[in-house]
Design a protein that fits this description.
With 59 residues, the chain is an all-alpha fold. The chain has helices at residues 3-25, 40-45. It contains two helices and no strands. The relative contact order is 0.16. Bound molecules: zinc ion. Zinc ion (ZN) is lined by residues 31, 33-34, 36, 51-52, 54-55.
């Protein structure tokens, strides 16, 4: 398999895993930086986002 694709797939899985963990912990949908709720539209576009639009995104 193309190595770059394998790396991207692994990173996507890690992001999903982290999102599921936050879901279990009741922290899903909140910005990791400021703790504000992340806009629903943003979560619908990418459920693995961890920052609101006000904070610098690391993703
Ligand atoms: Zn924020």
């Amino acid at each position: 398999m193309n190595n770059a694709i394998a790396v991207r797939r692994r990173q996507a899985l890690q992001r999903l895993d982290a999102a599921l963990k936050r879901l279990r912990d009741g922290e899903f949908g909140y910005c990791l930086e400021c703790g504000e709720e992340i806009a629903l539209r943003r979560l619908e576009l990418d459920p693995t986002v961890t920052f609101c639009t006000e904070c610098p995104s690391r993703t």
